[in-house]
Amino acid sequence: MTRLCLLAFQRGCQTRPVHTAEAEIQPLLNADNGTQTDPQDHLIYQLPPKGELRPESPGLRDFLHRVEDMVVKELASNAKSHAFDGFDVNWEDQNETVSCIHCLQHPSAQEKGLQVTSISWSCTGSVIACAFGRVDDGDWSTEKSCVCTWNLDRRGLNPKRPDMVIDVARPVMSLSFHPSQPSLIAGGLYSGEVVVWDTNRTQDLILAQTGMSTDTHREPVYQVAWVPGPRRGEMVVLSAGSGGRVLLWTVDSDEGRLVLSAGFALIRQQVPHNSALSKNRGSSNVGVTSLALSPWDLDTFLVGSESGLVLKCSFSAQTLAAAPPDGESVTLRAPAQFSFSPRGGPVHSLHCSPFHRNLFVSVGTDGLAHLHSLLQPDPLLSLRVSDSYVFGVRWSPTRPLLFAAATGQGLVQIFDLGRKSLRPAATLDQLTGGQPVYCLEFNPRRKDLLAVGNADGSVNIWHLSTELTEQGPRETAKLEQLANEVAE
Amino acid sequence: IATFLGRKLQPRPQNEVEETLKRIQGQKGVQGIIIVNAEGIPIKTTLDNSSTVQYAGLIHQLVMKARSTVRDIDPQNDLTFLRVRSKKNEIMIAPDKDYFLIVIQNPSD
């Protein structure tokens, strides 16, 4: 028999009484101070400033000692190796052919005989907007026209029915989507007005407009573009017209107005000339027919005129324009700094190369495409595009050596500067029965799409072959070589 | 002669590091060299600031992933060298406990 004994103990404890005492303090002198760190992007990735004496990273010398031989050996054998010669990887489906995937039309505009004057892709690359107006002669100052948009990524895309039709009281000569807000479109009208539409609105789509005031252009606005404004993140609208004015407008959406913030006037007498000027003794204004912004230098822009001048201009030019003041709210300045060799007729389109800071291409009614360097007046290369007028030219956004030009014969000629021959690498027939092609734009997101606007009121969307969109090896180097050649 | 605890102090060995980098840079087709520390922060570079920062951040992650892949397959194994060959150039990475050496080479130059 076991007996279970439960032993229990009890203990207690108690601290000795805690001594407390009270005391007070009061500062006699007060001072305020604060600290604030400056916001710095990528603080952790800031490189230490050069030239400062700093302790050598411990072990760096030994590390380099260890790896140097191995790395040098690999570099040397890689340079000699033929292991990867001719080795190509297909990450994407190769497309051998160029095809027209959509032919977008707005029947009611076509019935009125309106032509596509300008097209623009939205920044997302899904929406194409086209402006209707007329480029050829005719009394069309009071003709109503429209701006149509199609969303190509939408299911149930109907090429004969635009997703949105914006009715405009005057013919629209130029169009430009906002570079970051996909719903805003700026347009320049035949009457000289500039309008910004917001496609997100349901009622009145006009977000802001210049109206007919003393500030507006008096002549058709052939080019609109969005340029960075003085405040960070703000974009202002640039408009250029045949009245010789290049104006910058800030968008005041509360008032629904475009407010003139800066302006430039191109006066013949103020154009720097280093070659014979044309003998045209017409008006002293230099009518602007085309404008190009430089993606490399935000201060530079190029202007092509009705008389064939191609000028390099600066946004920060300070010289005052020699134009009599006409009630404008800002003082107009003369922006032209350099004059390239003039063309034989109006310069319809200019485009700066996205791959080389000094190169741009210009086309006009003489049927030639001139490849220019910003550094010299004469062109580096002159290509015959067409026997008739050439209305538009755009560099490819993916291939440094490629550009496409729209001709008056209804063809889009694509040139590859890497080829030995000066003949086009591809010709896209717009099937408009020989009617001119007025504008063309590469899709900023999808590198294989090219939109082309025709005089018969249709917009063709072309799907380009891989050969025309994939950058080849050493293209940038070849472009650099081309840019460094000095014209005779 | 400056001494500390009776031992001769070595002069700062800056030159040797620079000399080594120059030798590597002199190899055929080398476009740039970056040395990154264990945290992925570039400490020496021959490229411009923004490219350096971009390469350093992206390659550090890639090396960590490559190393863990090798060790997951065989815990006794470890990454000794990483080469990334692309259409335009080749990136060679020599990893180590405290530093990575990144060399960008265009072999056809």
UniProtKB/TrEMBL annotation, chain A:
WD repeats: 437-466
SMART domains noted in UniProt: WD40 (SM00320)
Superkingdom of origin: Eukaryota
Subcellular localization(s) per the UniProt record: Cytoplasm
One Gene Ontology term from the biological process aspect of the record: intraciliary transport
Pfam families the record matches: WD40 (PF00400)
Any GO MF annotation of the entry: dynein light chain binding
Keywords: Cytoplasm, Repeat, WD repeat
InterPro entries: Dynein_IC, WD40/YVTN_repeat-like_dom_sf, WD40_repeat_dom_sf, WD40_rpt
Gene Ontology CC annotation, any one: cytoplasmic dynein complex
SUPFAM superfamilies: WD40 repeat-like
PANTHER family, alphabetized: CYTOPLASMIC DYNEIN 2 INTERMEDIATE CHAIN 2, DYNEIN INTERMEDIATE CHAIN
Protein name: WD repeat-containing protein 34
Automatic annotation (TrEMBL), chain B:
Protein localization: Cytoplasm, Cytoskeleton
First and last residue of the signal peptide: none
Gene Ontology annotations of biological process type: microtubule-based movement
GO function terms (MF aspect): dynein intermediate chain binding
Keywords (A to Z) from UniProt: Cytoplasm, Cytoskeleton, Dynein, Microtubule, Motor protein, Transport
Start and end residues of each Roadblock/LAMTOR2 domain: 17-105
GO (cellular component) term, any one: cytoplasm
Principal location listed in the UniProt entry: cytoplasm
A family per Pfam: Robl_LC7
Keyword Ribosomal protein applies: no
InterPro entries: DYNLRB1/2 (IPR016561), Roadblock/LAMTOR2_dom (IPR004942)
Family: Belongs to the GAMAD family.
Functional note: Acts as one of several non-catalytic accessory components of the cytoplasmic dynein 1 complex that are thought to be involved in linking dynein to cargos and to adapter proteins that regulate dynein function. Cytoplasmic dynein 1 acts as a motor for the intracellular retrograde motility of vesicles and organelles along microtubules.
PANTHER family from the UniProt entry: DYNEIN LIGHT CHAIN ROADBLOCK (PTHR10779)
Name the UniProt record assigns to this protein: Dynein light chain roadblock
